[in-house]
Amino acid sequence: MKSLPAFRLFLVALFALLLPTVAQAAEAGAGGPPVFWNLTGSWYGMVALLVFVLAYLLVVAEEALHLRKSKPVMIAAAVIWVMVPLAYAAHGNTTLPQVAIRENLLEYVELMLFLLAAMTYINTMQERGVFDVLRGWLVSRGFSLRTIFWITGLLAFFISPVADNLTTALLMAAVVMAVARDNPRFVVLACINIVVAANAGGAFSPFGDITTLMVWQRHMVTFTQFFDLFLPAVVNWLVPAAIMSFAVPHGRPRPMNERVVLRPGGAMVIVLFFITIASAVAFHQFLHMPPMLGMMAGLGLLKLYGYRIKMRERRALAGMEGLGGQEPPVFDVFAQLQRAEWDTLMFFYGVILCVGGLAALGYLALVSEALYSGLGATPANVIVGLLSALVDNIPVMYAVLTMQPDMSHGQWLLVTLTAGVGGSLLSIGSAAGVGLMGQARGIYTFSSHLRWTWAVALGYAASILVHLWLNADLMHLPAGGG
Asked: Is the full-model pTM beyond 0.70?
């Protein structure tokens, strides 16, 4: 999640007026799609919208205020869900808000448990030194700056579909900073390349980004159908990378003799992670069950294997001489569980309930009519990607998913692509960009990224054109509608 400079707050506030989403709820006993009443003009609706806008302004000003982003949205969620039942009760309906909030909570629980398992695996791999080994190998090779530029981009593109784009970007940026910290021009170009590659790589995998995960969990795109976005994602990265490569300075940094050893059990944790991913896919594809069941089963496997690591390390310590009263800690899988991004998980809770409450008050219909009915699916989906560069792509994509516009399969792939890669247009447009601004503080900045936004925009446009051409047979609704 990113923070915006003050002069961008007005744009965010303006877009927040068009950012509601909907909980999938239906009237008791009613069939077909859920129908919420239009209460946007009521006192309750206006208060709810104002509370959401104020909360989101606090979110985007997180770094300036040093206020964790989960706090304002959690409070706003509570206020909004006071307004929703009061608004419906004033019109004689007390059933729909109850159904809506339960559907919101179900949506959140599935996402939270999935992410909790994934975060625990990533934390465990970090603790076992998996990423340190990769970084150590890269910095000790003595590659040229141009080679490092391409290798870090390539690895970011192919690691992010499995790990999240933020972890991938931070890992690759650590390599860049280790070998060329004294070359700011190269650091800027390499960081932009990594951000674009990590976001593009995450777009063709359900595990690469929260937005793709939500699309997969909603059954809008199957696991294998994500691979239809592979070539558009490649183009999205390669176009700006090729342009920027001509500006990469010549030279070869001094090789570093950095040797990092993988801690015991690290290789097996990697194997278990891929087994867990396969389990999540199997639950979703073959059993038609939520993929979080497979992820939680995999988390159970990690806990069992963590017990084996812990007992092995205890035995090793028992056979050692005293260490001056300070024995190294043994592995604890629950410590890795505690290291999960709880602020992010609580932020998801607040966002899902906030926008779900606004949708229950009728804002969804207004946005759907303005975008998808007024402009058409393709322009609307392109705009979604552009907006994700200003406002976090998670609520944007959740809005589209819960609006469920009548779109072809190719259009669902298009919005998955644009929401995933649109954040690369600005350094504040994705978690990867914000993370790298902190890691390369003072070198990779908002303005340094903005100088190359035109090249990133060319990649954005090219990837959309490639998708429209390559998947042209998927872009039209079948005869008779969706």
From this structure: yes
